[in-house]
Amino acid sequence: MEHPIYERKKISLEAESELLLNVNELAKEHKYYQISVVKISPNNKILCFGEDTTGRRQFKLRFYNLETKHFMKTK
Fold it and tell me: What is the pTM (predicted TM-score) of this model?
């Protein structure tokens, strides 16, 4: 299954694209993988999305720091 790749362009459409999230990479280690509701914080520093790896529509929130390019640890 092919998953989406999320990108954005800063300031103008002519600007270089910035990779936000490659869902294909996230899905590699799972038999089932779906994300839902991708949102970026008002300060443009954190990306948040729901992640389902079971197929039961039980989504876990994940947070990705767009400055450091690392996932944030959650409890």
Answer: 0.85
